[in-house]
Amino acid sequence: MNTFETLESNVRSYCRSFPVVFNKAKNDVLYTETGEGYIDFFAGAGALNYGHNNDFMKNRLLDYLTSDRIMHGLDMYTTAKQEFIESFSERILQPKGLNYKLQFCGPTGTNAVEAALKLARKVKKRNGIFAFMGAFHGMSLGSLSITSNTSMRESAGVPLNNVTFIPYNSTFNGMDTILYMEQLLTDTHSGVEKPAAIILETVQAEGGINIADNEWLRDLRQLCDDHDILLIVDDIQVGCGRVGSFFSFERAGIVPDMVVLSKSISGYGLPMSLLLLKPELDIWSPGEHNGTFRGNQLAFVGAKAALEFRDTVELEAQVKEKEAFVQQFLREHIQTMDPLIKIRGLGLIWGIDVTHLGEAFAKEVATLCFSKGLIIERAGRNDTVLKIMPALTITLENLSKGCNIIKESMAQVTSNLVTL
């Protein structure tokens, strides 16, 4: 560990919560260099929806690597890119009746968010963006400007302008948030200019597993239509099947103007980001938003394999089955511990909100879970929401084991508090 502490920057983060050296991983378990196994309820912050070292995808990648195929292609035409585009269109877009063009951005999600913001402003010739309280969209300056976390925003070192933050979901302290936005847009004395776009996560992951109501999402889509505003859905963490359906917005029956994908779009945890945009919005000049690694060929191969894997194993049905298990477990075994505990979730992303017990309680539970062989992170205001986000391919056995570790850890920490 001295190597990391001595030579690696202080900016390192997750390793502080999980202070061991990992060496191997398979599906839903991470192994240290000394062989200890940890059930993974974190899944690479959502980049490993299909598990660690998925054999179906790994074999495709190995075949590609050993055949001297193109490894770096900028945005040139390649077989790997063509096959992914065709597969994504045939397996995802066409069956859902979606008409999007694909823009390949730099390898991280924040770069695709930047592209979406730039394009929205270019199309509408307006500067402003509406974002939501509790939002997380990335750490580069444009993405950070629409991220609400105060401490993260302070790290920018410069003003983060041209963004108006709106309370998330249908009501906020009794206020109708759609009506509030309507008033901002129509009142000549609101002091707020019409934005180019409204961007949101339909499930706020880092914000504490906050779920937007279907009706509110439909009303938001209508608001954008009524006022000539683009609707951007950030599906970086909760897309690619995390909530069951491939896109998180499908449950509401809406069609965003742009969709941002990253994390698990590559299938294997390889760097990749993607912006989906309605064809009429594609007014880019060649090279106007580019990046040296926007053509990650291995990611294209993994992404195509992931789409095939989803269909082969009927993954959406698997997620629904596991969703039912987690929901029942949390209602029966966790919420009953304390009536003030709040449970929120969808698909295989769930939050145990222990805000009333404080940050120290949540941190101690997460630390104790790790000591018992479970990797779980925290989210939300002051990190007081325990975040359950395993691979979609997790076995029911390990899903049950992990949930029971949470139960045991919460009971133990609660017992310690009572003793004190």
TrEMBL record:
Pathway given in the UniProt record: Amine and polyamine biosynthesis; ectoine biosynthesis; L-ectoine from L-aspartate 4-semialdehyde: step 1/3
GO molecular function annotation: diaminobutyrate-2-oxoglutarate transaminase activity
EC numbers on record: 2.6.1.76
SUPFAM superfamilies per the UniProt record, alphabetical: PLP-dependent transferases (SSF53383)
UniProt keyword Transferase, yes or no: yes
Required co-factors: pyridoxal 5'-phosphate
Alphabetical keyword list: Aminotransferase, Pyridoxal phosphate, Transferase
CDD domains assigned to the protein according to its UniProt record, in alphabetical order: OAT_like
InterPro entries associated with the record: Aminotrans_3, Aminotrans_3_PPA_site, Dat, Ectoine_EctB, PyrdxlP-dep_Trfase, PyrdxlP-dep_Trfase_major, PyrdxlP-dep_Trfase_small
Family under the similarity heading: Belongs to the class-III pyridoxal-phosphate-dependent aminotransferase family.
Protein name in UniProt: Diaminobutyrate--2-oxoglutarate transaminase
Gene name tied to this protein: ectB
